Amino acid sequence: MKQITKLLILATILIAFGCDNEREPRRPDFRLSYENQIKRDLMVFSQTGLTPKSVLKSYQQSPHTRLYVEIVDGEVRYTTDDRDSLRLDRAAQIIQLIRQSVRAYGKLQNMALVFNLLDEPQIKICRTDKCESLPLFSFQKTDDYADILFPYVPQFLNIDSRYKDINSLDVSWESKVEQLVWRGSQTGGVFDATNWKEFGRSKLVLKCNEIPALCNAGFSSYSQVTEEGMLAMAGEIGLKERISEPEMMKWKYVASYDGNGWADRFVRLLASGSVVFKQDSPFYEFFYSSLVPYKHYLPVKQDSSDLAEQILWARQNDSKVRIIVKNANEFVGSQMRQPMVEQYVYRLLQTYGDLQRWGDLGTAI
After folding, report:
1. 148, 256, 262, 308 — which has fewest CB within 10 A?
2. Whole-model pTM above 0.85?
């Protein structure tokens, strides 16, 4: 405790929340269909509570990739040993989203929290009495992890503007290209000369090369690839021209495939005027429980083996596909706007704070 307190005193940044003098905080009043995710994520702590020891241990386990936060009397204080610029940006964005939520919905009780600044979840579910479930907020997880889901801040801090960006091109349904489109880079692991064909995104590109009349997919840059892997990929599939997300709306069908876990563009694509072909995936975000295949998106097997079949189905059922697009747009409009995300964050932290015995944390900073 003394060590973490010393760190906080030396490296803490204070951000005062206070009351917004220009307007009273509004009360949470949106009916969020995915709010039960909070209960599911915090269930493991409902009996044991959130002890000071477990919170501090969660941070100390990996201080170079985690963010320690205290909310004390309307102020937020935080520190991290991380020095990666991308992750430091995420840390600042987490604080900003908390700040926006408090300004919108009111002051939170005192609490301490730890955030994972990496893409991948970190806390495996504890299945024996020899391990301990540590509280850690993460952007995604699978059913094998006990991380507490928090909105992916690079996207959800200003989500409404991202919806506007992806719909910046006014393209009628009738004028859209009747193909599937995807562009991206190699994420999900390290691609080398022996394994690159095993990744989901590679299987998508390879499958689309077999059915070019139905699908236009390709890598537009190299990222997590060894030099040998790059040579192997260049010799077989190469790179294709980049297509921005707004430009993808010229196609009727857009793909969402896993990278380092979930595909963060998924919710933006749901807000577009095209239908989303979503790869089956064990990874999920805080709102996924509300989504239904064939109602909000079209599912595709992880290995893309049914891709041609699904595209042909979409072509033959154009009126049904348009209803799927409409349902996806309505879901985003009624559930995923900025005030709704802020309400989710507020209720999540409020519920989390109720489980934490703040008095046990000792003297506040």
Report:
1. 308
2. yes
